[in-house]
Design goal:
single chain; mainly alpha; two-stranded antiparallel ribbon; 16 helices
């Protein structure tokens, strides 16, 4: 049993391990190459988050999905580079919107160079992803364009907030289905599609990625409250401080409104206060870490991970399928 990649997946087959490791190494090289510019400053800014590391969750999923066809097909590594570049570009933009200071354990691009450079660097990465994508054919361009539309729509829905009468939890799940699920679904789709797998397999791995992506984001919601910065790579409570309505907070608000418990109402009032105050943020985090709302969010994470696992049932038994099942466990483990 060998651990593969920063995400820590255990692989139980030497041939699969070799394929995945080689693929991820090629993706890493492709990312650095795609971030190069004739302008040295652009190269430095574009490679900033690549060199900071990361889980490479999306490229890992591309590599595993490709095992259901020809894992050495020429489009697999470039498609993995495309999805990771797209993800990295959104991180540059997200950090500007969230006014984040830390990303992946290093200064965020906006903290280091300012908002304008961070936004434009994200745009540069989108452009490079599109350039690579153009060589993968019109179907790949269409798939990526649809996913990107969903991603941006999710971000807009998050910014706009739920409509009157809309359940905030359902609204939030729609948001993360777009913001996170869409690109992880494309990772499964590209891996299978580029390998020449049957259309039924492509569809299964797309659905798997969609559900796993939701679980992945819900695990991040839990980590924002439950982890320290060493575990998550960003400052704990960042989402709370920026007023982002993550699932534990939404569960807390629903519980406070339904039951009227004084302690819950007080915690909601603290959340609505000025969380720029470090002491206040620390107190909110302390209370949330022992609150039933956090455990409820963990259960939701498990539910979506199990749904992802269930979609894999029609696939033939093999080491790649076992690894995809273990990815579900790994996501749940991140949430505690």
């Amino acid at each position: 049993m060998t651990v593969v990649g920063p995400f820590g997946l255990s692989v139980r087959d030497q041939a699969l391990e070799t394929d995945v490791q080689a693929g991820l190494a090629a993706v890493e090289e492709g990312l650095l190459d795609a971030c190069k510019s004739e302008v040295p400053f652009i190269t430095e800014a574009a490679q900033h988050l690549v060199r900071a590391g990361g889980k490479r969750f999306r490229p890992l999923l591309v590599m595993l999905a490709s095992q259901f066809g020809d894992p050495y097909a020429p489009g697999i590594v470039p498609s993995a580079v495309v999805v990771e570049l797209t993800h990295l570009a959104t991180l540059y933009h997200d950090d500007v919107m969230d006014e984040a200071d830390v990303r992946r354990g290093v200064d965020s691009a906006n903290a280091r160079w300012g908002n304008s450079v961070a936004v434009l660097t994200g745009d540069f990465l989108f452009a490079r992803a599109s350039h690579i994508l153009a060589d993968l054919g019109p179907e790949a361009v269409r798939v990526q364009a649809e996913a990107f539309e969903r991603l941006v729509t999710g971000q807009i829905l998050e910014t706009a907030g739920p409509r009157e009468g809309c359940d905030p939890v359902e609204h939030y799940l729609d948001v993360i289905s777009g913001k996170t699920g869409s690109l992880i679904a494309v990772s499964g789709r590209f891996g299978a599609m580029m390998s020449g797998a049957d259309e039924s397999v492509v569809n299964i791995l797309t659905q798997y990625g969609e559900r796993l992506g939701t679980a992945f984001q819900l695990a991040d919601d839990v980590l924002d409250i439950a982890s320290d910065s060493h575990e998550s790579g960003k400052t704990p409570g960042t989402d709370l401080r920026e007023g982002i309505p993550t699932l534990p907070v939404l569960h807390l608000r629903a519980r406070a409104a339904a039951q009227g418990d004084p302690a819950d109402l007080e915690l909601v009032e603290l959340l609505d206060g000025d969380l720029a105050d470090d002491a206040l943020l620390a107190e909110v985090l302390r209370r949330l870490r022992t609150h039933p709302a956090l455990e409820q969010a963990r259960r939701d994470t498990i539910r979506y991970a199990e749904e992802a696992r269930a979609t894999l049932a029609p696939l033939p038994e093999c080491f790649a399928k076992s690894a995809l099942e273990e990815l579900c466990d790994a996501v749940v483990h991140r949430a505690g």
